[in-house]
Amino acid sequence: MLETTMVLFTIYTLLKIYISVMQIGYISEEKAKDAVLMSQDKYLNAGEYAIKKQRLDIVSSLVDYVMFVWWVTNGFNWLTNALSIDNSVTSAIVFLFSFFAIGYLVGLPFELYQTFKIDKEYGFTQTTAKLYIIDQLKSIGMFIVFGGVIFYLLSWIIINVGSWWIWGFALLFSIAILVNVIYPTIIAPIFNKFTPLEEGELRDSIEKMMNGVGLKSDGVFILDASKRDSRLNAYFGGLGKSKRVVLFDTLIEKLTNRELLAVLGHELGHFSHGDIWKNIGMMGILLFSLFFLLGNLPESLFFEMRVEPNAGVEIAMMILLLPLISFIFTPIMSFISRHNEYRADEFGSNLGGKENLVSALIKLIEENKSFPKSHPLFAFFYYTHPPVIERLKELGYDTPAVNEMAKELPNDGIFTFINDNNKK
Predict the structure, then answer these.
(1) Which long-range contacts (CB under 8 A, 24 or more apart) does 161-166 make?
(2) Sign of the CA dihedral 91, 111, 52, 229?
(3) Nearest to residue 223, comparing CAs of 177, 190, 256?
(4) Where are the domains of the chain?
(5) Beta pairing class for 244-248 and 220-223
(6) What does 297-341 look like in DSSP terms, one character per residue?
(7) Within its chain, how far is the Cα of 193 from the centroid?
(8) Could you give the maximum distance between any two Cα atoms of the chain, in Å?
């Protein structure tokens, strides 16, 4: 059984690397051609950024593979003996914190390189070493508190309850829904400052749009994203009474009010179509599959790893197998997500104006340095949003015309150009 598990993880790793290699080769060829949807220098810049990210992902995947092999062949046995682990809740918690600490230390160099080398080189990250350390300490503190509670409850269920995997799934799925409820008002403010949007035309327009689709929220807030990152974003967060509209300050700086409303109209489309609940449902299916698999693993697998199937090892094994199970579900979830994005685009274009949404999409692509093309296999697996070129086509816009507009006019001239182009 151990040999089969290692073969499956090997296939998964090779597939991931193959897809990344195809993406690198595709972008390398495309970035040498005429630019699409952005100026030539920004097009080249976006391509180089995407390639560097993929190269780092390949190295990270190889390290993850080595760590997986080490854990299942020797690591679990070594850590169990080093900590004198038995089948108790306390031992399981100690084992899991040690397991995650090792994983954190192994992955930290990749995160540092991404943040302070790649993102810094391309002008994304605004974070300082001090802010990064503070964020890390906050994250570790939250993990110790909330992770400790989850580890305790899940370990207790594994040790004391029959068919534990069913109850374990119910526990984590309930916690996932709870996190969605409390994230905007309790978790997110730990890391960022949320300022209510000032009264005025923009706020009135947003509230009018929300009332029009029946969305009652906790308010409209501006997030100080620029202290860490220059990329643009906006989202509706939370469930129930905790729902709130969040606008990145970078988004407000770069988009006109009409473009902002079109972007929010897109997000309102997700709300109107119930996409949040669909995503939670898909997450539930993934979690259930993971717990079902782990709950029915033969004991021989653990004996081959030279460990007892105690609570700590079983939960750690679930963490190791999560990427493999997720990879199987990824293309399905990505396909559904892309379908939802098309529908949200249609909703947003009707609510906020098609020309405004197109203008906003082009600015988002350019400001976020998102290379507008992708290898079909990479897009099939990983693109939760359709390629922007396809989104423009779906909205009825001719890409070459929009491309010329993106290359030749400043951002504040985009809206006028699109209107003029549509009249021809």
Answers:
(1) 163/295, 164/295, 165/291, 165/292, 165/294, 165/295, 165/296, 166/291, 166/295
(2) positive
(3) 190
(4) 2-194+268-423, 195-257
(5) parallel
(6) --HHHHHHTTS---HHHHHHHHHHHHHHHHHHHHHHHHHHHHHHH
(7) 21
(8) 77
Identify the burial level of 214 via C-beta atoms within 10 angstroms of its C-beta, where 0-12 means exposed, 13-18 middle and 19 or more buried.
exposed
**Tokens standing for 326?**
């997720």
pTM of the model: 0.82
The SS3 of residue 246 is strand
- Tokens, residue 161: 């309850």
Q: Which of the residues 30, 64, 275, 345 is marked catalytic?
A: 345
DSSP state of 123: T
Q: Is 29 one of the catalytic residues?
A: no
264-267: long-range contacts at Cβ-Cβ below 8 A with a sequence spacing of 24 or more? 264/206, 264/209, 264/234, 264/348, 264/352, 265/209, 265/347, 265/348, 265/349, 265/350, 265/351, 265/352, 265/357, 266/344, 266/345, 266/347, 266/348, 266/352, 266/357, 267/234, 267/235, 267/236, 267/344, 267/348
Q: Indicate the pLDDT class of residue 94, thresholds 50, 70 and 90.
A: very high
Q: Is 198 an active-site residue?
A: no
| Residue 247 three-state SS | strand
Q: Residue 26: which of 397, 387, 398 has the closest Cα?
A: 387
- State the Cα–Cα distance between residues 389 and 400, nearest whole angstrom: 10
Q: Is 29 left (phi over 0), alpha (psi -120 to 50) or beta?
A: alpha
DSSP 197: P
User: What is d(CA 19, CA 15) in angstroms, rounded to the nearest whole number?
Assistant: 6
Name the DSSP class of 245. E
Distance CA 300, CA 152 (A): 26
Residue 394: per-residue pLDDT = 85
CA-angle at 349, arms to 346 and 352, nearest 5°: 145
pLDDT digits (tens, 9 = 90+) for 353-406: 888 888 888 888 877 888 888 999 999 999 988 888 888 888 887 656 566 555
So what CATH class is 195-257?
alpha beta
* Set 48, 57, 267, 355: catalytic member: 267
| Reduced DSSP (H G I as helix, E B as strand, rest coil) percent helix, strand, coil of the chain, to 5 | 75, 5, 20
pLDDT at 154: 92
Using CA of residue 409, residue 410, residue 411, residue 416, what is the dihedral sign?
negative
Distance CA 245, CA 236 (A): 5
Residues with Cβ < 8 Å from 185, sequence gap 6 or more?
A: 218, 238, 242, 244
From start to end of 151-216, where are the E strands? 194-196
> Token pair of 235, please?
């989202």
